[in-house]
Design brief:
By secondary structure, the protein is an alpha/beta fold. The chain is built from 9 helices and 9 strands. The protein has a 9-stranded mixed beta sheet with strand order 3-2-1-4-5-6-7-8-9. α5 links the parallel β6 and β7. The radius of gyration is 19 Å and the shape is globular.
């Protein structure tokens, strides 16, 4: 009998559970993770065991019933293509709208690194790093990316605040991956193009450096987007964000990805055209 495979099966998210802040002794795996899903089931595993052989656990889940509730879907989990690894909450910033606890345990880094190493060799699609911490807080991340081959991943997608990036190393990595047929994309969080507003939101004064990194990433073709969260500190200027970005470098405005701080605003509170863009991504 042919399986009814869920059409939302292309991404598994690997992260630490929110109730495991102190020890990070459990890893949570979320199959069928998709922005359109109303619900996803989490599976928890011992962190060390998981990090030693993550693909085994992922493959086991592919045999399970799909846990999503979209359009009455009752299919099974199909072949995993993309992996999001959010196994670090360590970050150098404390942005005002960030809800993550950046507590850190030394064992966490080893679990993170081991998981990444042991995902190699499985001919996967996109590797996403990370939605909960800052990947460039670890200097070894550059060497890890350079060690990848097209038998590991076809694309590396990085979410970063940009403040710790070594531009020379980033360009070296981009050239290295391109030569091996691996696409590198980064998304940098820049929630204002006014230096004073940026400092208030990010609680950081590295604004000029981040702009230089964004310009470099744009020039070499790896800037996939600029995350811009609409929230109280930038509410008076968000409508001009694309124009402000283009003033820094022509073309940056097209990279703005509008997001919304739903703790303070609803879609009804903002410009209808921008609200529509945000709503379509939800």
């Amino acid at each position: 009998m042919e399986r009814n495979v869920c059409k939302y099966n292309n991404l598994c998210k690997i992260n630490f559970g929110v109730d495991e802040k102190a020890n990070f002794d459990k890893v949570f795996l979320v199959p069928c993770c998709n922005r359109n899903l109303k619900q996803s089931k989490e599976y928890s595993y011992d962190s060390v065991q998981f990090s030693n052989n993550p693909i085994t656990y992922i493959k086991e889940l592919e045999k399970e019933n799909c846990s999503c509730f979209v359009d009455g879907c009752n299919g099974t989990i199909g072949e995993t293509k993309d992996i999001e690894v959010s196994l670090t909450r360590k970050c150098n910033l404390k942005c005002v709208m960030c809800g993550y606890d950046h507590s850190f345990n030394a064992a966490q880094e080893k679990i993170y690194k081991d998981t990444l190493e042991n995902l190699k060799g499985n001919n996967l699609g996109t590797l996403t790093l990370t939605s909960e911490g800052e990947p460039f807080i670890y200097d070894w991340i550059y060497d890890y990316m350079k060690s990848l081959t097209s038998d590991d991943f076809k694309r590396v997608y990085i979410l970063t605040n940009g403040t710790l990036i070594d531009d020379e190393k980033l360009e070296e990595v981009a050239n290295n991956l391109k030569a091996k047929g691996i696409k590198l994309d980064i998304v940098i969080s820049i929630h204002s193009f006014d230096m004073r507003t940026y400092a208030k939101i990010m609680r950081n004064k590295n604004f000029p450096r981040v702009l230089e990194t964004a310009k470099l990433a744009y020039r070499i073709g790896i800037l996939d987007g600029i995350n811009y969260v609409i929230q109280p500190f930038n509410f008076s200027e968000y409508k001009n964000a694309r124009k402000d970005a283009d003033a820094v470098m022509k073309g940056l405005g097209d990279k703005i990805i509008y997001l919304l701080d739903f703790c303070n605003y609803s879609l009804d509170d903002i410009d209808p055209e921008i609200a529509e863009v945000i709503d379509n991504k939800m």
